[in-house]
Specification:
Length: 193
């Protein structure tokens, strides 16, 4: 596995594809996984959060009991999502983005149309597998980050893969990102609604 690849939750890169090639992302939608040519780690659940309240409700279900199907724990997943969201909020709005990983317009629109991220996206610098935290603490960290994102007036720095985004699109990206990672955590029997 290449270093710097989001494999912590089970994602892998398609053989022979370099994620750093501009617009050459090996697209493998996370949702749905029943279309020809698509792959999703076995055991993941399809998620499509419409807003932060849906994420909050899902966290409650997961905290009642869950299992994970990737290499990260629920605490690590929540820690990662909280850290990324806080980093987005802390970045100067006029920051010059690294364009080397910018996705093509087609891939960008596919993310918004499918509301999913392909497995194997390259991690941002400094975002290797997060420290494990107790799941309730991780959920609290994520909830705090989501509340800060909900309250943020914007504008925010351009996304490293998607480019400049409105605040509405940024919040949508956070929902998509949360859906991607939290799909690796499956509520225990009786915990899903």
């Amino acid at each position: 596995m290449a270093s710097g690849v989001d494999a912590g939750c089970g994602g892998v890169l398609e053989a022979g594809r370099d994620p750093a090639e501009h617009g050459a992302l090996a697209w493998r939608p996370g949702i749905p996984n029943d279309q020809p040519g698509t792959t999703m780690t076995p055991g993941r659940r399809p998620l499509n959060y419409g807003n932060f309240e849906e994420i909050d409700a899902d966290l409650d279900r997961l905290l009642e009991g869950h299992e994970t199907v990737g290499a990260w724990t629920l605490g690590q997943i929540c820690h990662h999502l909280a850290t990324v969201t806080q980093r987005v909020l802390a970045a100067p709005a006029d920051a010059t983005p690294d364009l080397s990983l910018r996705l093509s317009d087609e891939d960008r629109e596919r993310i918004f149309a499918t509301r999913s991220l392909p497995e194997g996206l390259p991690l941002a610098r400094g975002m290797e597998a997060p420290d494990d935290v107790e799941p309730r603490r991780g959920a609290e960290m994520l909830r705090e980050a989501l509340a800060a994102m909900a309250a943020a007036p914007g504008p925010l720095a351009p996304h490293r893969l998607l480019g400049p985004l409105t605040m509405e699109r940024w919040r949508e990206v956070v929902c998509i990102h949360c859906g991607h990672h939290l799909s690796f955590a499956v509520p225990a029997e009786g915990g899903a609604s």
